[in-house]
Amino acid sequence: MMKIGNKRKNPRIVVIGGGTGLPVILNSLRKKNTDITAVVTVADDGGSSGIIRDYINVVPPGDIRNVLVSLSDLPDVYKKIFQYRFDSKDQFFSGHAIGNLIIAALSEMDEGGIFDAVQKLSKMMKTQGNVYPASNTSLVLNAEFSDGSTLAGEAEITAAKKTIKQVWVTTTDGTEPEARQEVIDAIMQADQIVLGPGSLFTSILPNLMIKNVGQALCNTNAEVVYICNIMTQKGETELFSDADHVRVLNTHLGQNAINTVLVNTEPIPSNYMDRQKYDEYLYQVRYDFKGLREQGCRVISDNFLLLRNHGVFHDGDRVVDELMRLTGQMHL
């Protein structure tokens, strides 16, 4: 049954994900009259986040850092400092973003862990809306591949370049992964839940595989909107259609939980992409309207394409305008 969120003046919108896609939507969403909550994955074990996680055993901070900046009202100069990444000449600090180090320090200082630390940092950075880590403890992403083999760790899973059958998350201490009650309350009280855009298996599903998060998503009265990726990804979604993306989400959640899908149908100009710079992206996601409708989805297909620096991205403003229409807030 189609779930339609309440039509209120300032709709409550929860955006769930990670990676580079989440800030794109948040940057545009913060320009509207909305009550925003970002639920951010904590299963990243690559780059600076992974190194910090291994050395001082804190939740990986990279995705959280980017989301804080996307919602911050601080002057640009302060945000640039927070985002500054030391270059290779600095050796000890090489590759680390200042914001990652600050988040790691605060999470060590605060007995409440990363969740409470991020709430304090949100106030310091004057963020519009809430930023909630999906879990208060580090999570390990696990995958089973089509050949029956399994691997643990986001970076290892992506590097394997195998067809993923299913993913799940575990904690480093063996306890049941769980989101804080604030995350669950936000989902249950929302008018609209937005998933993506972002890597299907490594940015979106790690959040939904936390048991109480997945259950809340299935039980909420909010409309659940999936922003489908524009490109397929090497080692994750090779040859996927938009309907395949939705099918994977619904299968992992145990029911047809996706109500509405936003899909880009604008063709990417041939030879536009820099294949060396964006080597993880393969082909444009194939449009399968029949496959989407068979899963009970409302389908919104349009030109959501943004071409920039020989890369392919979602146009955040166009996507958010559509999200606003869905909440009945077309002119906000």
Explain this structure to me?
- The chain is α/β, with parallel strands linked by helices and 332 residues long.
- The chain folds into two domains: 12-41 and 134-326, Rossmann fold (3-Layer(aba) Sandwich), CATH 3.40.50.10680; 46-127, no CATH class.
- The chain is 37% helix and 20% strand.
- It is built from 13 helices and 14 strands.
- A seven-stranded parallel sheet has the order 3-2-1-7-8-10-12, sandwiched between helices. A three-stranded antiparallel sheet has the order 5-4-6, with helices on one face.
- α1 (21-29) runs parallel beside α3 (62-71), α5 (98-109) crosses α6 and α8 (181-189) runs parallel beside α10.
- The radius of gyration is 19 Å and the shape is globular.
- The model is unreliable at 46-57 (pLDDT under 50).
